[in-house]
Design a protein that fits this description.
The structure is a homodimer of 491-residue chains. With 491 residues, chain A is α/β, with parallel strands linked by helices. The first copy, chain A, contains 20 helices and 12 strands. Chain A has 2 domains: 331 residues, Alkaline Phosphatase, subunit A (3-Layer(aba) Sandwich); 121 residues, no CATH class. A 10-stranded mixed β-sheet of chain A has the order 5-6-4-3-7-1-8-11-2-12, with helices on both faces. In chain A, helix 2 crosses helix 12, helix 13 packs antiparallel against helix 18 and helix 15 packs antiparallel against helix 18. The N and C termini of chain A lie far apart (60 Å).
């Protein structure tokens, strides 16, 4: 093929140069991403994603991402993790103990992705559908031994120097829990003193722009515990997770790029309560928030990385129930009109307040209104309750109306109701089971979760790896150095 | 950098040639694998693999494979798949209906990976821990509308021309079920007439070698339904799944290469019965079988592809139970000495045979012997039963001794026992729950499974894809052409 070897030898150095040029061009394309998104579905395991896909009748956007991996979640001191340990792992690459926020097992603080990004001049945004001082978001800006130190976390937020906080509110601005390491005054005041514009209404939110500088945006209606309402409970006045995400992108976009963490926190809360409909609808809204980042990515494909994961599974959700055998009927979930939380708050509470406990007959129409479950009807109507289901519901109703029994700590009662209002949790159990969806726990479980990625070096997120690797891979991709130095310092 | 453009232009054609050479060398390295293994853990979903890892206290070999993916499993006509539809998907790349073996939804036969490999001159081996005519192995050599046509499947096996069958036996050699499409005589006779050496003992098995030509090897003890015993029930005389795999590699190895499918079939059966210990120990044995292929791969790294997957999850297993909250205690499973099957066969059966039903007191020592569960002891002993657990066990014992009640079809009874012996399944439920492991079903579930790969083009098995893609990716890698032509012909 090559007749003159000496000629070839003469050409080789130039060939090498041409090849080097090619390599330079390709490595230029693989420069650090300017825009980095980390989406964390709290309690969003593989069954939650699968259920949302099936309910929606089509693949979620996150399932169409080109890179998919499996992520293990254990904490340093427990197989089944919690949000603080899992959040710290994903924020800092460090395996820590249950309940610890932004510190190693020896309680030395560890630098977070958010802080590293801030220190390189990028803007930083933190969004969550639960309180913005809850464990997962806190692990990106706070360093406290116990996740319950909300006041300390609120102070850390005020002093973080991050650019955008959006979603739920803060839980303990006045240190009412009394567990502050040092009281520095009202946390809202500190937040404002540190230059944040605080808005708490849709109108204020819609008027926000880059000109406002640092922003803390929350929703007018805080459903409970500092969180946004479940997506299925929202009205037109509520600001959704995807809107908080979209606004974050708008105000963070700048020449130095940004890092943004978005948590779908109420997926977890819905799963703790074994409410599949609420969990699925919050998962779909979370996926919609990812869609806002994906729209941005399409305009900046060579400068963006999007990583979507869960911090752990919650509830031991599975897509198959003994009573429905090989069948599933996800469409029955359409019968449910609000989350368990709204049913408890609105209906069960009003019944409890009455001097004479109303009869179960009075509750029936509410059960049909809120969950679509019918007490009589055609045998082939999937919403009609079987006798054994009615028996369960009546028993639960009686316990709901009698607080003492449920709080007795009887292990059988706990397994049945998990400390939730017995009627509400029994109604979601019955409805979910009719759909072929079942649960084994009111807490998290230890099964791995899915991680999905698109964009710059997204291929790194293929395979099977630990939650600490999420932070390490992002840091490496962003050129922040291996975390080894940060993580080691905190061990 | 390049001063003389005209000189560069002159060099370019030679550079292109040098580059072409490099491409040729690299594509030579990526030639079709000579040795291809497909391992299918029946009922081995993500929780089963995770549980086996945790129980073993270290990562299974399959979890250390460099390429890991997530595989969706649905059938053409049902969200929750079955082994026949899932097996057909993985054997032929074709989505089919529940119960159909090696045919499309319109019942046209589809060519399988095994048949394609055979037709290119490779040797073919099929190994399973359940009967070798069970749905999963059958999908690689048989084409029947209903998986229950065991006699037809046995005839297809005899006529397959495959080189090695190892593991369980055949279920209907005499067409006792009477559902044969055509009776051609005793299937064992047909198998021998087609040149197979049949061995049914350890001694015969150990003496097998390449010189024996085509081989059908099974175990002396068939525990039930044509299957090998559960791994935890085996004695030294039983041939394990890993031994059948190792022998297969030995006799199949030849200059034209081989394709081998190995099924861990009893993982599924253990999960149907909600017996975590049996499922985990069969998963570990399945992983050991993969280890035999991996040893072979290490000697032929540039000629081998190993793919390991599951056909679906089974039982709705999760690693977290309401009663144990955030804790797991996998070590309690060590208390169990045999599978639920042996306990039912040996202990429950003998009790039932007695004219006067023995008192529960007589059963207690057997429960302690077989499951490690204690009726009294120190409060901190995790094996000591709580009162509410004892109540459940006594109720189950009474139902076990009274067949009629369980077979009544009462949906509550079915949810509790799934048609299994009530005492046996309650004991595994109680033991598993003490360990923090729970189940939601006695059937398969619809959550995706993990696929792992190593070797030639193993990277193709990263990401998220459907079970049909497993066959398509293997066919493509083996240079068998896209299945499009085969699959389309069968639609």
């Amino acid at each position: 093929m090559l007749k003159n070897n000496r000629q070839t030898v003469k050409f080789l150095p130039l060939c090498v140069m041409v090849l080097l040029l090619a390599v330079l061009v390709s490595s230029a394309a693989a420069k650090a991403p300017k825009y980095v998104f980390l989406f964390i579905g709290d309690g969003m395991g593989i069954p939650q994603r699968s259920a949302a896909n099936e309910f929606a009748g089509k693949k979620l956007l996150v399932d169409t991402f080109p890179y998919q991996g499996i992520t293990t979640t254990h904490a340093a001191d427990r197989f089944i993790t919690g949000s603080a340990a899992a959040g710290t792992a994903m924020a800092s690459g460090l395996k820590t103990n249950i309940g610890v926020v932004g510190m190693g097992p020896a309680l030395k603080p560890v630098k977070t992705l958010g802080e590293m990004a801030r220190d390189t001049g990028m803007k930083v945004g933190i969004v969550s559908s639960v309180s913005i001082d809850h464990a997962t978001p806190a692990t990106f800006y706070a360093h406290v031994p116990k996740r319950g130190q909300y006041y300390d976390i609120d102070v850390a937020l005020a002093e973080s120097g991050f650019d955008y906080f959006g979603g739920g509110t803060i839980k303990d601005p006045e240190n009412e829990r009394g567990n502050a390491s040092e009281f520095k005054g009202n946390a809202w005041d500190l937040i404002k003193e540190n230059g944040y514009k605080v808005v708490k209404s849709r109108r204020g939110f819609e008027n926000l722009s880059k000109k406002d500088g640092k922003i803390f945006a929350t929703n007018e209606w805080i459903q409970n515990s500092g969180a946004l309402p479940y997506q299925m409970d929202t009205t037109g006045n509520d600001i959704s997770l995807s809107e908080f995400t979209e606004k974050g992108i708008e105000v963070l976009d700048n020449d130095n790029g940004f890092f943004m963490m978005v948590e779908g926190g109420k997926i977890d809360w819905a799963c703790h309560a074994n409410d599949a409909t609420a969990a699925i609808k919050d998962t779909i809204e979370f996926n919609r928030a990812v869609g806002k980042a994906y729209d941005f990515y399409k305009n900046h494909p060579d400068e963006t990385l999007i990583v979507v994961t869960g911090d752990h599974e919650c509830g031991g959700m599975t897509l198959g129930f003994a009573g429905t055998k090989y069948q599933t009927y996800f469409e029955v979930l359409n019968g449910q009109k609000t989350s368990f939380r709204e049913f408890t708050n609105k209906i069960v509470s009003s019944f409890k307040e009455k001097e004479v406990t109303p009869s179960f007959e009075d509750m029936k129409p509410h059960i049909t209104d809120y969950f679509g479950l019918k007490f009589k009807g055609e045998a082939d109507d999937p919403m009609v309750l079987a006798n054994h289901e009615i028996t369960r519901i009546i028993e639960a109703y009686q316990r709901s109306m009698n607080k003492e029994e449920v709080k007795s700590g009887d292990p059988r009662t706990y397994v049945m109701y998990g400390g939730y209002d017995p009627l509400s949790v029994t109604l979601t159990h019955v409805l979910n089971q009719k759909g072929g969806i079942a649960w084994t726990s009111y807490k998290h479980t230890g099964v791995p979760v899915t991680t999905s990625a698109v964009g710059i070096e997204g291929e790194k997120f293929q395979g099977m790896y630990d939650n600490t690797d999420i932070a390490l891979k992002i840091m490496e991709t962003m050129g922040l150095g291996t975390t080894a130095k940060y993580a080691a310092a905190a061990r």
